[in-house]
Each structure stands twice: as structure tokens, then as C-alpha cells.
Amino acid sequence: MSAPEESLDLARVAGQAAADKFAEEVIALDVSELVVITDAFLVCSGDSERQVAAIVDGIEEALLTQRQRKPLRREGEREARWVLLDYGDIVVHVQHSEDRVFYALERLWRDAPVIDLQIDADRPA
């Protein structure tokens, strides 16, 4: 069994919003079979604290305007090195590129299937 379609939809909207803010290595993992607290992790990164903050703002705006969803919890906004947005169904990790290499969440959750985000790279931001 995989993540529910609603969770996949939220991950796709968040992933496209991250890509629109030039996030690097946008990936979503279906963790629904591995953890009980969420269905999917979206992981992406930016080269600077300013870009991390912009990516976070873009994701929050997209999920609010397109799906009327606000994060249940936010962590790490002040430092903007690793910001976590918890939407219940999905958890978004926006990391500074250096932190992403160091923590390697994809390696930690390598048993989780990758979700096809269907990101439109040609879409204007």
C-alpha cells in the first residue's frame, strides 16, 4: 500500500513550488509503510539561508492558496539551515545544501519508494 492520493497531491504541489524557487534536488519519498506519523517526506535544498527561506515561503504560499493547507508545525525558520514544515500528511524538509550532504536524509530513508512529483521545469515561476 502506498501513500494516499491526497498526500501525493500535496507533495506534488509543494515540490513544484520548491522547483519554482530554484530548489535543488527536489525529491519526495513515500514513507507511509515505514513511519506512522506521516505519508511522505519532501526533501529539497538551497545554496544559502536566503534561498532556503524563499523556498519555504513559496511552499507555504502554494499549499495555502492551492490546497488551503497551513503547516501544523514549523521548525528551524530562524536559522534557515534546515526548515521543517509539518503538514500532517507530508513533512517538508528544506535544507541548506551543506546540511543536506551531511545529514543525507535520502540515504537514511533509502528503503522508501520515490514519488514521481511530475515537476514542470519549464513552467515560469
UniProtKB/TrEMBL annotation:
Keyword list, A-Z: Cytoplasm, Repressor, Translation regulation
Cellular component GO terms held in the UniProt record: cytoplasm
Cellular compartment(s): Cytoplasm
Protein origin, superkingdom: Bacteria
Assembly, per entry: Interacts with ribosomal protein uL14 (rplN).
Function of the molecule: Functions as a ribosomal silencing factor. Interacts with ribosomal protein uL14 (rplN), blocking formation of intersubunit bridge B8. Prevents association of the 30S and 50S ribosomal subunits and the formation of functional ribosomes, thus repressing translation.
Protein name, per record: Ribosomal silencing factor RsfS
Organism of derivation: Brachybacterium avium
Biological classification of the source: Bacteria, Bacillati, Actinomycetota, Actinomycetes, Micrococcales
